[in-house]
Amino acid sequence: MLGFVATVPVFAFVVARVGGDRWWWPVRVALAGMTPAAAVVWVLRSPIDDTARGFRRNVRDHRLRRLWQGRVDRAIATLGGAVRVEVTRVRENKLTADVTLRVETLDETTGAAVAARLAELGPSMWPRVRWADNSVSPLAPGSVEAHVDKRDAAKVVMSVRRGDPFAAVVERPDANTATVLDGVRFGVDRRGNEVRIPIFKTSCLIGGMPDYGKSVGMTHALRVAAEAPDAQLWAVDLKRGVEIVAWRPYAYAVATKPDECLPMLRMLEKVMEDRMDVLEAAASKQWQPTVEGPHILLAIDELAELDSLSFDVLRRIMSLGRAAGISVWAATQRPSADLVPTFVRNLFHVAISFKAQRRTDSDVILGAGWASDGVDASKLSSPGECWIVGAGDGPRHAKAYAASAPPLGKAEPVQGG
């Protein structure tokens, strides 16, 4: 429109000059009218464009709300009660569709029941979904999540995932770890957001069946300890060191046999006591990691292989080592209360479970009761897929990055092993 208004006076002027005097007086009239019009349009171009964009956005939002309203109504009709659900807001992106609902009930049906029904029936009732960009994709089982807003019991928020973000291998971003305080870049959640797990002041238990990502998950913590200048790696691998063979040059101390494990743990216990003496003398509560006094990560592969004496020393390290700048990351593929004592399991702040063989195994790793709340690692299917408990506000369903490779620098002499 703006281009048309601007070019008409120019075209009229050219015609007048070519056509001679008989065209001049009508052209002057046209120029007199069109020039102010062009100036007005030029001044109002931004409000006009904003109004046009707002109109197109409103039309698109209205179409999306009607589309999702029909889908929601089909699922809610199965409740059979006097329930009215209104879709008030829809936001779609490349990964998810976030739908906000307003629930009005004339019986005892609650917003929680509506949320549960949407999460349960959504993937089966909407097997293929057409999105705002006109693409069509199937919904994977478990791709619909819904919950009641904590501040408004009549408001339900539903999230629908497009396809399966865990289907492909997720590579770790190629970035160096500047400090141990940055934590472990572990993977991504269902929304594609990066999951970071702290190492400083945090111990972590990793469990799961073989070939489902347990060892891969441990490599991300090993990389932080090997790469960060203010971190130091101590490693226990009672499978003769096969899991940490690539990381041995970066470890300060290594134990690969049962008779090496207890002496190394006692050596670490002595380091812990020395650091506690320093804290006491300085009237300080927490050891701060530095290059000269690094944070110590004790990595244990196959926790269940430790003997009773080693477990006793480990319990003391985990109980007191947090203040002394010592964290423990341990992995096991045999999550049994008989093999991993409860007094040790309860000292881990974060738990990560890859595919578990049984529901009870999932609860041993993540904590009792989580499976009954839907956080059940025995239902996971793909390698790298896991549940994380304790690294945030609630449990997170994530996929670990592909295995981390050892860094290029910061190799230290190995003690023992």
Could you describe the 3D structure shown?
With 417 residues, the protein is α/β, with parallel strands linked by helices. Helices cover 35% and strands 22% of the residues. The termini are far apart.
Low-confidence stretches: 413-417
Overall pLDDT confidence: 81
Q: What is the total tally of β strands?
A: 16
Inertia-based shape: elongated
Give the biggest sheet. Answer: 10 strands, mixed
How much β-strand is present in the residues? 15-25%
What order do the helices and strands follow? HHHEEHEEEEEEEHEEHEHEHEHEE
Radius of gyration equals 31 Å
**How many helices?**
9
Helix fraction by DSSP (H/I, runs of at least 4): 25-40%
Helix and strand composition category? alpha/beta
Distance between the termini: 79 Å
Side-by-side strand order of the widest sheet: 8-7-16-15-14-9-13-12-10-11
Q: SSE layout and pairings?
A:
Blueprint: H1 2-19, H2 24-43, H3 45-76, E1 83-92, E2 96-105, H4 111-125, E3 128-130, E4 136-138, E5 144-148, E6 155-161, E7 184-189, E8 194-197, E9 204-207, H5 214-227, E10 231-237, E11 251-255, H6 258-281, E12 295-301, H7 308-320, E13 326-332, H8 342-345, E14 350-353, H9 359-366, E15 385-389, E16 396-400
Parallel strand pairs: 9-13, 9-14, 10-11, 10-12, 12-13
Antiparallel strand pairs: 1-2, 2-6, 3-4, 5-6, 7-8, 7-16, 14-15, 15-16
Helix pairs in contact: 1-2, 3-4, 6-7
